[in-house]
Structure formats: structure tokens, C-alpha cells
Amino acid sequence: MSKVVAVIYISMDGVVEEPAWTGPYWNDEHARFQSGQLHASRALLLGRKTYDGMSQAWPKMEGTPGAEQMNSLPKYVASTTLRDPEWNATVIEGDVARSPGSRPSTARTC
């Protein structure tokens, strides 16, 4: 059985949805931590909005640190609206929020 490791950017006032605010605080220590987390991953678990933003940005970043790993990892996207995933993604079907701890019974791979 695998484990889920959550790496979340969150501000002191609880803002999670937009990581752009982290730019001024990025440093070598943070970069090493994030690189280690990415390279230890076998897959990514994403929500729909995070998937949408990342799937538009990362394929354009070829040659930057971490891009090859990020682009090649399988992605699992929790969504009830995503129909045609790209970027090596599988949609987790069903109501994921209503069944914590259980594996989704169906998935759709691009």
C-alpha cells in the first residue's frame, strides 16, 4: 500500500489556491525540499483546478529543473467534470470526498 504525502502551499491566513505569493520566499533550502519531494514521488494526486493550472504550465517548462520528472509522472485527478485528461493523467471518478480512505473503483486514463 502506498501513502499520500501532501505538500501544500498555504499562507498564514489560510490561502491555498494561488501559490504565486510564495515567490519572494523561495530559496535554495525550499528548492531542495521541493525537489526531494518531487523525485520521491511515484505519482501526483491533484484536484481539478490544480491540474488545470499545472497541465498548462509544466509542459512548457522543458529544460527547467524538475520539469522532466513533473511531466513524466502519472497524475490522478479528483474531478467530476474533467472528461478528456491529458498530461499523463487519470480521472478518479465518483465522489472522492464522500469516501475517504477508500480507493476509487473506476478511473479513466488518457
Furnish the topology, listing elements before pairings:
Blueprint: H1 28-40, E1 44-47, H2 48-57, H3 67-72, E2 75-78, E3 89-92, E4 107-109
Parallel strand pairs: 1-2, 2-3
Antiparallel strand pairs: 3-4
Describe, in plain words, how this protein is organized in 3D.
The structure is a single chain. By secondary structure, the protein is an alpha/beta fold. Helices cover 26% and strands 14% of the residues. It contains three helices and four strands; from the N terminus they run H-E-H-H-E-E-E. The chain has helices at 28-40, 48-57, 67-72; strands at residues 44-47, 75-78, 89-92, 107-109. Strands 1-2-3-4 form a four-stranded mixed sheet.
Task: List descriptors.
single chain; 110 residues; alpha/beta; 4-stranded mixed β-sheet; 3 helices; 4 strands; 26% helix; 14% strand; disordered C terminus
Give the overall average pLDDT: 84
How are strands sequenced across the largest beta sheet? Answer: 1-2-3-4
Q: Which structural category fits the helices and strands?
A: alpha/beta
Number of DSSP-assigned strands: 4
Radius of gyration: 15 Å
Total of DSSP H or I helical runs spanning 4+ residues: 3
**Share of helix, binned:** 25-40%
The span between the termini is 24 Å
Q: Tell me the major beta sheet.
A: 4 strands, mixed
A few lines on this structure:
This protein has helices at about 30-40, 50-55, 65-70, and strands spanning about 45, 75-80, 90, 105-110. With about 110 residues, the chain is of the alpha/beta class.
